[in-house]
Every structure is written in structure tokens, then in C-alpha cells.
Design a protein that fits this description.
It is a single chain. The chain contains four helices and 19 strands. The protein is mainly beta. The two termini are 22 Å apart. It is globular. It binds 2-oxoglutaric acid (AKG) and fe (ii) ion (FE2). The site of 2-oxoglutaric acid has 12 residues, from β10, β16 and β17.
């Protein structure tokens, strides 16, 4: 996770990514200070969370999937869009997949995914990622490299349930074309992902990230990037940069959360440690790697 001028820790901790993807400025200005946390090495800060804004979604947004348990009648529990302002928004469906099916997926993934807990390098220092991970990607995509680590890209074909879930996500968001997936397993409340934005260049300028959760409910926080972190626009255009805004979602078993618009440009997200989270959680983040031609983005 980094942007052209900012290094905020890819996928929670990955700074220092690799030239092709990240460009030469990746290591500039490494310690970023926000009002509540020092974002920087590793993005592993367990920042105090305050002034979390409550749910105010409920835009009655309908999903198009036949199999997914979604839509305005599925529950009254915050379905819909949360507008973050300035072109950023989050769509949340607490019950995207049924309870039973979600446990089936959980157990399948827990058992069959070739989990790794790689050592990455932050400021040249080795650091073990604080959760298990796995990367799935369509063939022929640009490689994902972060913090001196290049995850093996596994094939969708080896994990039919993942293709099934991908299909549900595509049905839910017509026109979406996710082609890669980062899977996280948080074995306990000690596992976490620090503040970061999924803003690598290979995802294009306004990446949409679809996140599905199974198992233990965990808090998912969003906060605005503070001064110095959002640098692509003149001060007059930045969203209230001096006031850190926060949002929280309790990501339920079977839920879907989509980040879209300017969310990766203007906001950071995290899943902090939680002493009370005793069981495991598996999270899927679907992404689209843009295929670049010499002159234009291939869609
Ligand atoms: O576990 C989650 O809900 C978020 C994971 C995440 O942000 C990531 O993989 O980039
Ligand atoms: Fe992320």
C-alpha cells in the first residue's frame, strides 16, 4: 500500500514495494504521522479508536445475485451504502451469503488453502505478517510484489468454491471483473491488519475492493488519511484533511463490504487486534489487476 507520494504500508504492512509496481518514490517519507497513530513502519499500529461514526447506510441498494441472501429484506442491519464523502463510499451487506453456506466456505478454506505467514521487509527489517495469507490470481496478470515479498499466485481452478464466491460477487455488482484475491486468516484476536490503503498502481486509479468475511466477527475501521497522506490534490480540494473521520463496521460472518470510488485514495482501513476475539476469521478481498498496454488501460 502506497501511493505515489505516500507510503502507508501495503496490505497492512507492506511498504517498500517493488519498483515495477510501486515506482521509485516508494520509500520516501516513511514515517507518516496521523493524529491517532504513527502510520509507517509496517502499518501495524493498534491505534486508539475514537469518535467512530455510527451506521447511516440504508440506501436500499439491491444486489442482483440470485443465490446470495441479500437485499433490503434480508435484514434491517445496515444494508446499503455508506457515503464517506468526496467520491468515496462503502457498500455493506451483513448477510451476503447464508449462515450455513458461509460456514461451509470457512471450513473448506481453513483446510485447503495453502496458508503462509511470510516474512516481509519493512525499512529493510524483517517482519512476519501478523496473519496467514494466500494469493489467487488469473493467469497472465502483472505480479503482485510488496515489501520485498512476491506471493505465489495460485490458480482459481484449484479452488472451485472461490470461483463460486467470485461469481456471486460479480452477480452482485454487474460490470465488475475481479481477477485476483488476497485471502487473510486471523487465527485469533492477536492477528490483525494495520492501517493501510489498497492503492497499488496495478489496481488502477479508483480500485474497487470487495471483501467477504467468514467466522469470528471483527471490527473493520476506516479513517481519513491525514495531512501529508493525501497529496494528489491541492489543499483546497482535500476532504477536511485536518479532522480525522472514522467509521466502523462489524464484519459479520457471511458479509460483503465493497470499498469504491476514492476510498483507497483518501481513506485508510484496518482490522485491529481484539483481545476478545477468540476464534478464527477468514477474509477474502477481491481485486482487479489492470492490464496495461503501452498506451492505455485494457479493460
Ligand atoms: O480482513 C479484512 O477485513 C481486511 C483485509 C484487508 O484490508 C486487506 O487484505 O487488504
Ligand atoms: Fe486492505
Amino acid at each position: 500500500m502506497k501511493s505515489e507520494n505516500t507510503v502507508v504500508g501495503l496490505i497492512g504492512e507492506m511498504l517498500n514495494p517493488v519498483s515495477e509496481i510501486t515506482g521509485p518514490k516508494a520509500n520516501a517519507g516513511l514515517k507518516l504521522k496521523s493524529e491517532n497513530a504513527v502510520v509507517g513502519s509496517i502499518g501495524e499500529m493498534l491505534n486508539p479508536v475514537s469518535e467512530i461514526t455510527g451506521p447511516k447506510a440504508n440506501a436500499g441498494l439491491k444486489l442482483k445475485s440470485e443465490n446470495a441472501v441479500v437485499g433490503p429484506n434480508a435484514n434491517g442491519d445496515g444494508d446499503g451504502v455508506r457515503d464517506l464523502g468526496n467520491g468515496s463510499s462503502v457498500v455493506y451487506f451483513p448477510r451476503f451469503l447464508s449462515y450455513e453456506k458461509s460456514w461451509e466456505y470457512f471450513h473448506y478454506l481453513d483446510k485447503h488453502i495453502p496458508w503462509t505467514r511470510p516474512t516481509i521487509y519493512v525499512f529493510g527489517k524483517p517482519f512476519v505478517q501478523p496473519r496467514d495469507v494466500c494469493y489467487i490470481a488469473s493467469k497472465g496478470l502483472k505480479e503482485l510484489i510488496y515489501s520485498g515479498h512476491k506471493p505465489d499466485a495460485h490458480s482459481w481452478d484449484d479452488y472451485p468454491p472461490l470461483k463460486e464466491i467470485l461469481e456471486e460477487v460479480h452477480k452482485a455488482f454487474p460490470g465488475s471483473h475481479f481477477n485476483s484475491l488476497l485471502i487473510n486468516r486471523y487465527n485469533s484476536g492477536n492477528d490483525y491488519v494495520g492501517w493501510h490503503a489498497d492503492d497499488e498502481k496495478l489496481y488502477g486509479p479508483n480500485p474497487e475492493i470487495a471483501s467477504i468475511s467468514f467466522g469470528c466477527e471483527r471490527d473493520f475501521f476506516l479513517k481519513t488519511k491525514s495531512q501529508g497522506e493525501v497529496v494528489r490534490e491541492p489543499p483546497s480540494k482535500r476532504a477536511k484533511k485536518n479532522k480525522v473521520e472514522k467509521h466502523c463496521f462489524k464484519l459479520k460472518h457471511g458479509s460483503l463490504l465493497l470499498m469504491r470510488g476514492n476510498t483507497q485514495r483518501d481513506w485508510l482501513h484496518s482490522v485491529p487486534k481484539r483481545a476478545k476475539a477468540e476464534s478464527a476469521r477468514i477474509n477474502l478481498t477481491f481485486r482487479r489487476v489492470m492490464q496495461m498496454s503501452s498506451r492505455r488501460l485494457l479493460l
